[in-house]
C-alpha cells in the first residue's frame, strides 16, 4: 500500500468517527432522548455534522483525491479503492461548493423541523409545521443550486436518492403502473371482504416483541450484528455491516402492523448486514440507493411476507405467541394480510393501493419543486389527490399531509424509491424463479434461507458499488420495466379475489 | 461578561460536545450495541475521550485558567464561575501531568476490560478477567503517580471518589458500623423468618415496567428530562439536568429487584434533574461526589422505599399492576422488603448486611493498593472475607469476586461511597425529622413531595459546588458520624424482628 493511500485511509478513519457519532445521536434522538434533552442533541449533531462536512470538503481531502486519481497511484489501487476514490471525488466536487454556513444551517433547520413536524402531527395542525417545511424547501433549493448548478432541482433530488433516475423515467414507469392497477383496484374493491375482529383484538405488546424476534430470526436477521429499538415510525439505520438497527412500534390492537414492519425493516437490515465487510466505513459499503434499498425491504415484506407459504413453517409458533391466531385458519390469515382497500395512511396500506400513495407523493413533490405550488396550498392539493387516486378524504392533516416524516428533514425525492423498489421486486421475482424454481415451494418447505442467500449474493454483497441500473442489468439482464410487478399483482389478486382473468 | 470569559465559555462548549458523545457512546454500549458493533464503539469512545482529554489539558485551557484566576478577571466573576475556574484549575494542574498516550491507553484498556469482565462473569471464570484487572490496577497506579505524586495511591483514589475522604476517616466510620451491626445481625439472623413464595412467583416483565414507572412518577422522576433503558446491571447517567437516564432489569420471578432498583436509580436521577440548571455542562453541575450521590439513591431506596408508610398510598395500585401482591398484606410486604440475611450478592442484599458487602470490598481494595496482594490471590481473599463477615462462601466466582462491574473500568475507591452514603442518610434523616416532622407520617399521608423538595433544596440544587463535608456541615451542622445510621437500624430492626431493646 502506498504511503499516500495509507494516509488517506487514516484520514477517512477520522472522518468516520464523526459520522459514527452523528449516526448515534440521530438513533438516540429517535429512540430515547427525553423532550428537554433534544436541544443538546441537536447542538451536538450540528457540531459533529459540521466537523464531518468540513473534513469531507477540506483542501486536504481534495489533494488526496486529486493525487490518488493520477495514473501512478490509481492504477495500483484494487477495484474497491478505485470505486472509493472515484465516488468520493465526484461527491467532493459537488459538496465543496456548498458554503459551510449553509450546510450547518441546513442540519440545524432539519433537526428543528423534525421536532416541529412531530408537534404538528400530534396536534394535527399543519400551520405549526408550515414555516419549517417552507424553510426546508428553500434551503434544499439553495443546496441543490450549489451541488447541481443549472440542473432541474427535482431531477437532482431524484438522482441523489436513486442514481440514474429522473422525472422522465419515473413518469414512464408510474404511468405503466397507473394504467394497469387503477382498473385492477376498481375490480377488487367492488368485492367486499368481511371484516374479522380477531385481527384487531388486544395483543400483548410483549408478545408482539417476541413475534418480532421470531420473524427477524426466521428471515435471517443476525442478532450479533443487530439491535431493535422502539419508535412511532419504524426505520433502519446502520453504523457498518456489524451494527445494523431496526425499530418498531407495538399497537395494542393491531398486531399485524408490528409484524409487517419487522419483516420490512428486517429486509433493510439483512441487506446491510450482508454487504461485503471490506467496504465497512467507506462510500462502497452501506447501500446509498434508496430504490435498491426499498426493493429489499419490500421484497421481504410483500413478495415473501404476504405469501401464504411464508407462514406455513411458522404459523403454529405464531399461534403460541399470539393465541388469537390459533382461531384463524392460514387461509383467512392470507386473505387478511392481502386485504386491498383504499385507506389514508401509506405505511398501513396494502401492497396494491400503496402504489397510489407513492404516485400521489411523487406528484406532490413535482408540484413543490417543478410547479412551485406554495406551502399553504399543499394540504388542499394532498386531499384532492387522495380523492383522485383513493376516493377518500382525510379527516385532518395528521392522517393527511402530516403523516410522513420524510419532508421534515429534507428527504425530498425519496418517496418514489418505494415504488421503484417494488418495480425492481417484480423483476427480481421473475429472475429468481427462473434460477431457483417456485418461490411458493421454497417458502412452503421452510427453505427461505435459499432466497436470502440469492439476494445476498446477487444484490447485498455489492453495497453501493453498483448503481441501480447496474444492479438491474447484472441481476436481470434487462432494462427497468413495471410489467413484471403488474403481472405479479394481477395474478395474485385475480386468484385471491376470484376476479375474471382478463382483469 | 469579559471577552476572555466569553471565549472561555466557547471553549468549554466545544469540550462539552466531546463529553456529550462519549457519554452517549457509553450509554449505547451498555444498553443497545450488538456484539459485533462493540469494537467500533470502543474506537469512537477512545477517539473522542482523547479529544476531550486533549482539550482538558491543552496549553490554551491552561492560559484561560491562569488568566481568569488573576484578580482583574476573577473578582469580576460571579460565585458559580469562581467555583468553575478554581475547580478546573485544580483538575487541570493534576491532569495535564498525565501523558496523553497513557490516557488513551487507559481509556481503551478500560473498555476492553469491561468486555472481558462480562465474558468472565458469564463463564464464571476469573482467569479470563485476571490479566485485564492486573492491567487496570497497574495503569491506575501509573495515572495516580502523575496526578498525585507522592500520595498514597488508595487515599488518592478515595479522594477522587469522595473529596475529603481518606483511609483514616473511613476506617473510623466503618469501625463504628462493624462494632454495632455485627451483634445486631447475629440477633436478627438467629430469628427465622418464613419464606413467602409469592415474592418469587412469575411477574410479567411488561407489568414490572409499568410498576417501575409508577414508582418513578411517585418519587418525582421527571419524564420530560429522563429516559429508561434496560441493562443487566442498573445504573444512572446524565448529560445535563435535562437528560438523566436510568436503567433496570426485569427478573421474571424476582419483581422486588426491579422495584427497588427503580427507586434506587430514581434517587440518583432526581438528584441530577434538580441541580441548578445554570450549572449544566460545567464542573459545577452533575454531582461528582460518589458518596453524596449514593446518599440520595440509598435514601430513596432504603430510608423511604423500605418504610411501610412509603407504600400505603400506592399499594393498591401495585396490586392492580402485579396481581400477586393483592394476596399479600402490607405488613407481610414490609417484612419481606426488610428481610435480613447473609447473602452472596451486594446488589440484592438487604440494607443491614449490605454494610458488610462494602466493608469487604473496602478491605479488598486496601489489600490491592496498600498491601499489594497479587491479582491471582484475590478470589481466595474474597471468599475468606465472605466467610468472616457473612458466614457463607460463594459457589463460584460469578457470584463472588466477579459480581461487580466497578473494578473493570478502573473505578477503584468507589465502593466505600455506598456505605458513606448510608452513613450520611442516617444524619439527614435525623435532621429532616427535626425540620419536617415524622417521615412515617409524611409518607403515610402521600406527602413524599415534601421530602423530595427538602432534599432538592438542601442537597441537589448545589450539584458539585459543595464538597461532601460542606454538604454535611450545611445540612446537619455537624461532623460525619455513623451513629445516626446505627440508631436508625437498631430501632427499625428491633421492632421488625421483636428483638430485646438492649441489642
Describe this structure in words.
Chains A, B: Its cofactor is Zn(2+). Two copies of one chain form a homodimer. Chain A folds into two domains: 159 residues, no CATH class; 330 residues, Orthogonal Bundle (Neurolysin, domain 3), CATH 1.10.1370.30. Chain A contains 22 helices and three strands. In chain A, a hairpin with a 2-residue loop joins strand 2 and strand 3. In chain A, helix 2 runs antiparallel to helix 6. The model of chain A has no long low-confidence stretch (mean pLDDT 95).
What topology emerges from the helices and strands here?
2 copies of one chain form a homodimer.
Chain A: H1 3-31, H2 38-56, H3 59-68, H4 71-74, H5 79-95, H6 100-123, H7 126-147, H8 153-161, H9 167-190, H10 205-219, E1 226-230, E2 236-240, E3 243-248, H11 255-273, H12 290-304, H13 308-311, H14 315-321, H15 330-337, H16 354-369, H17 378-390, H18 416-436, H19 439-444, H20 448-458, H21 468-476, H22 483-496
Parallel strand pairs in A: 1-3
Antiparallel strand pairs in A: 2-3
Strand adjacency order, main sheet of chain A: 1-3-2
| CATH fold descriptor of the largest domain in chain A | Neurolysin, domain 3
Which segments of chain A are poorly predicted (pLDDT under 50) over 5 or more consecutive residues? none
Got a strand count of chain A? 3
Write down the domain tally of chain A.
2
Q: Give the biggest sheet of chain A.
A: 3 strands, mixed
Amino acid at each position: 500500500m502506498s504511503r499516500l493511500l495509507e494516509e488517506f485511509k487514516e484520514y477517512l478513519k477520522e472522518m468516520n468517527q464523526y459520522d459514527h457519532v452523528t449516526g448515534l445521536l440521530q438513533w438516540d434522538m429517535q429512540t430515547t432522548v427525553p423532550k428537554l434533552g433534544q436541544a443538546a442533541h441537536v447542538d451536538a449533531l450540528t457540531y459533529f455534522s459540521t466537523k464531518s462536512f468540513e473534513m469531507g470538503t477540506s483542501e486536504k481531502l481534495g489533494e488526496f483525491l486529486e493525487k490518488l486519481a493520477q495514473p501512478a497511484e490509481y492504477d495500483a489501487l484494487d477495484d474497491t479503492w478505485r470505486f472509493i476514490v472515484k465516488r468520493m471525488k465526484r461527491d467532493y466536487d459537488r459538496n465543496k461548493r456548498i458554503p459551510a454556513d449553509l450546510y450547518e444551517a441546513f442540519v440545524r433547520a432539519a433537526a428543528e423541523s423534525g421536532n416541529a413536524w412531530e408537534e404538528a402531527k400530534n396536534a394535527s395542525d399543519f400551520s405549526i409545521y408550515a414555516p419549517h417545511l417552507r424553510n426546508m424547501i428553500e434551503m434544499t433549493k439553495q443546496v441543490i443550486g450549489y451541488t447541481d448548478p443549472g440542473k432541474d432541482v427535482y431531477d437532482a433530488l431524484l438522482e441523489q436518492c436513486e442514481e440514474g433516475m429522473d422525472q422522465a423515467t419515473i413518469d414512464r414507469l408510474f404511468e405503466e403502473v397507473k394504467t394497469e392497477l387503477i382498473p385492477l383496484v376498481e375490480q377488487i374493491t367492488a368485492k367486499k371482504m368481511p371484516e374479522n375482529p380477531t385481527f384487531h383484538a388486544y395483543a400483548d405488546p410483549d408478545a408482539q416483541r417476541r413475534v418480532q424476534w421470531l420473524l427477524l430470526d426466521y428471515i435471517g436477521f443476525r442478532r450479533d450484528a443487530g439491535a431493535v429499538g422502539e419508535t412511532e415510525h419504524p426505520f433502519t439505520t446502520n453504523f457498518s455491516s456489524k451494527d445494523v438497527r431496526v425499530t418498531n412500534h407495538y399497537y395494542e390492537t393491531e398486531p399485524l402492523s408490528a409484524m409487517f414492519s419487522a419483516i420490512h425493516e428486517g429486509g433493510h437490515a439483512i441487506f446491510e448486514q450482508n454487504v461485503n465487510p471490506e467496504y465497512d466505513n467507506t462510500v462502497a459499503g452501506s447501500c446509498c440507493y434508496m430504490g435498491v434499498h426499498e426493493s429489499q425491504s419490500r421484497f421481504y415484506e410483500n413478495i415473501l411476507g404476504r405469501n401464504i407459504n411464508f407462514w406455513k413453517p411458522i404459523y403454529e409458533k405464531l399461534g403460541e405467541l399470539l393465541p388469537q391466531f390459533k382461531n384463524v385458519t392460514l387461509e383467512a390469515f392470507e386473505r387478511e394480510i392481502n386485504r386491498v382497500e383504499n385507506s389514508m395512511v401509506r405505511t398501513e396500506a396494502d401492497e396494491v393501493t400503496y402504489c397510489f400513495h407513492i404516485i400521489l407523493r411523487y406528484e406532490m413533490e413535482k408540484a413543490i419543486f417543478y410547479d412551485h405550488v406554495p406551502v399553504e396550498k399543499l394540504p388542499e392539493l394532498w386531499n384532492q389527490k387522495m380523492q383522485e387516486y383513493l376516493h377518500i378524504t382525510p379527516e385532518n392533516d395528521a392522517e393527511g399531509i402530516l403523516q410522513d416524516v420524510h419532508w421534515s428533514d429534507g428527504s425530498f425525492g425519496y418517496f418514489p424509491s418505494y415504488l421503484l423498489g417494488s418495480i425492481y421486486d417484480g423483476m427480481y421475482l421473475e429472475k429468481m424463479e427462473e434460477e431457483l424454481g417456485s418461490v411458493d415451494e421454497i417458502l412452503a418447505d421452510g427453505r427461505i434461507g435459499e432466497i436470502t442467500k440469492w439476494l445476498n449474493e446477487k444484490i447485498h454483497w455489492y453495497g453501493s458499488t453498483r448503481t441501480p441500473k447496474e444492479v438491474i442489468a447484472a441481476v436481470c439482464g434487462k432494462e427497468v420495466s413495471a410489467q413484471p410487478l403488474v403481472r405479479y399483482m394481477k395474478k395474485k389478486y385475480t386468484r385471491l379475489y376470484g376476479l375474471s382473468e382478463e382483469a
